Amino acid sequence: MSAVAAPAAALIPAPRLSVDGNTVDVLPALYVPEARQWLSTSAGRIALEGYSWMQAVHWVAGSGLYRPRLYRAHGPRSFGPTTVFVAQLLAELSPCRPGIEYLMRRTGLSERAVQNHLQMLRETGLLAYLSKGTRVSGEPPQASEFARMIPVEFDDALGIRTAGEGTGRRMTGIAESGRELMARLAKLAARKVRRRSTTSSRTGAKGARKAASGASGTAVSGESRCTPMGGGADGSSTAGTTSFPPESKLASGGSKSPVPKKSKAKAGGRRKLNAVGRRFQLARELTRELDWLRGCSVPRIAWVARTVADAGWTVTDVKAWLHLRGEAAHVRRGSGLLAVLLSNAVTVLDTPAKRAAAVEQWRGAQEAARRHRIQQVRARTERYEGDWQAPSSRSVQREVEAAFVQVRETVNGGRHQDQGVAAESSTPTEAEMALLRQEAEQQLAVGDTSLIVVAIDAMGRQTAEHVYGERLVRRALQLESCSRSSLMTIGHR
Q1: Residue 15: is the preceding peptide bond cis (ω within 30°)?
Q2: Band of the pLDDT at 388, cuts 50, 70, 90?
Q3: φ and ψ at 128, to 5 degrees?
């Protein structure tokens, strides 16, 4: 127990038996100040489930120990049926994080009224803050989260024994004098209470005062009081004469049949799509899977693919059919091309077996294309990273040999003395260089860059530019860079 809760706990006397020896005679007024309305400062214990919590709610409503008008001059006059109805809605939530708009929609109350009833539940110790809601400008409001609590006054009144410490205490037993009252509270907790607008708050306050003075009764919501200070629990008070409706109507919410209707939703929480939903689902998948349909209007694609969607086709079936039909290389209007390609698709592949065969053929083509791409990448890697091979052109071979001679002379510390080799490695004439440039330009025209690339690898870029010219060398390097990109294809048309 916290330091804040300790002084208030001292005000709660030990239960005293009445003359008949069966019920509790005196209990103090029930009120929890604002400082103790948090889980860390609460003196109560956490309710294990909504059912046991509703027993405590009905006991508070019938005991008359809580008088809200002693602490404020506005709001409800007593803990009445509307407060019990709000508590019943909170018992259904897990976690207990109700929004004000949600409670307004379920109860039909105003925002101020909902806040008043939540305040009453906190002041009686039935709710404790876990986190308080925020109202930040420009952001959606955050709802408060509560812990459902059982007040310590409830345990004292019924003689409930608990084990453990703090808010995590658990019920281990109950006194013989409180068993009958607990059974009646269990029946009330099992009922579904509906809010009554005919009972005035003034009559509810009169009933609360009568219950506090010793009147007996167990029914709540302003009709009869459930108080531990009287021996019986079957008498009715002057708070109201309205009786509860039959339990069959309460269980089904007032419908004609007590059997709840079966939900049309699937087990996964999503409803089954109709024909229009299947068309739009297929259209979204097509615009996501096919590159030439990206950016197209989904409603237009849904209308174009309506025949295959109504026939139960999937996006895989459509892609297999497009493979069989053949796709265009240049697309100007994706929806129009799709309409042309899907014409007579349902007629040709009119059975699931035919569609399955088309899918298998399409997957086989995809696997073959994948293997072909792997072979291309492997060949390109071996070409640039594998062992070097001599060029087939005789002029390039002479240049390569001359480069090797220069390397050997540099290693040996002087020029090579062999005149035959020196004659072989002589500088080519202008006519030979013109022929080399003409041959290289013809090969570049068809996308073949091997002649200049090999020369650059063997002699360096500066020497290659001297032989072939700066323009041809730059063009060859550009084509070689583009050939390594998957976005460009170089070759014959």
Answers
A1: no
A2: low
A3: -140, 140
**Could you read off the pLDDT of 76-85 as tens digits, one per residue?**
888 989 999 9
Q: pTM surpassing 0.85? A: no
Query: Residue 63's CB: how many other CB atoms inside 10 A?
Result: 24
For residue 142, the cross-strand partners are 134
